[in-house]
Automatic annotation (TrEMBL):
Keywords: Coiled coil, Hydrolase, Metal-binding, Protease, Zinc. Residues 181-393 form the Peptidase M10 metallopeptidase domain. This is Peptidase M10 metallopeptidase domain-containing protein. The keyword Nucleotide-binding does not apply. Residues 271-305 form a coiled coil. The keyword Cell cycle does not apply. Residues 391-420 are annotated as: Disordered. InterPro entries: MetalloPept_cat_dom_sf, Pept_M10_metallopeptidase. Gene3D superfamilies: Collagenase (Catalytic Domain).
Amino acid sequence: MLLTTLFTMGFAATSTHSTTAEAKTSVKIVWRHKVRPAATYQMKGIKSKRSYAYSAKLAHEKFRLSKYAHKQFTVTYQQKVKVHGKYRVYYYAKNTANHKISGWVWRGYLTKASNKQTNLISKSKLNQLISAAPDLQPDKQVLSLNKDVYSKYATIFNKQYNVGNFAAPGVFFHDHATIYVEDSALQSNVNSAIDKWNAALGADVFSIGSKSNSTLTVGFGDGTAAGWDGLFNGTSVQVDQTHFNDQSYVSANTLSPAFQQKIKALSDQASQLLANTNAELKANRENYQTQLQLLNSQLNNASSDSQRDQITQQINDLKNHHHITDQQIRNDYNTQLDQIRQQIKDDYNAEQESSSASLETNYWTTVITHELGHALGLYHTPYQSDIMYAPTDNESESTPSPVKYSWTEPKDPDATRSYETAELSSRDINRAKLTKLLGYW
């Protein structure tokens, strides 16, 4: 669910023309949020040697602005501060040639760079690149385009790769989110989820923080009635507490591919048994009716009492035989059906015994990794080998997103399900790399 509230923090800032001493003046941060997508600005021709960019708390000089006159900077954040009763807006700017040259700059010193876009590919060319790449899988070419392509064609990328800007402003700062875990029972799973994303993306994207120093929380919620085990709402991840505390929840609701094949075979066997039984009952009934019709005809044409008595006895014997045979067919069916049912029960018990505690652990780690994926801007896929898999494209508890196509069943039904291994797929990883280029984290 995409929230609209702004993430705010309170710390020291400075006015545009302040010296280092003035920068220590107590100020009030009115708001701060990310610029999405990042914009390119040019430093104005500044002659004053007393104008600087400042550190995070705007208390230390980072670099003299006059040294970078007419140089280009990328703006990723902006904040409004109140100093001596006056309001000013600052941009967090990075020099495009050297990202180490960065700091908070009063917006009056920056001017929007020319919007003349170079090395931009056309919309049709972009669609060709996307079509040539695997389904929902941004490949190397798609991930190495001119940065302006991502801002210009963001809506195309969103729909073609099922992504969007889902995290609330302030969740990510400098491409990083700090997580506070509300319940220690979740700590291990959260740590594993963090390690998986950080290792996959090669960066410190998530880290553990405290209640007072965090931008994202993970805790328990009640999703049993609504039908979710994990939920991301823009600023927090919730895990259904009832199912989490049920140590047999995952194994009791998980059928391995091998077991599913056994069930299908036994189901087919039961269906064939029913068909064969119905055919036997029909043949027995038709044979009975044919013989009964013949005996009734003979009875009508009998010339003596002894003949009639004899035929009547044959009719009674036929009826008894038909009844016994009919009951025997039904009893045989029930016996064989019970055997099939018992086989299913035995196989199911064996399945449960083979399910280890690691399955439970992997499942809940997958749930949290999945929800952190939403924070990174990833919507669902129909591939059950993906951490971001969902059985359908329109799950009501998820943040709405444009999708490439609809689905109601997995496109890789024979693949290992992600929650069995709790491993990110290349599709998960590359989509997350794309959302970074789009400025969603």
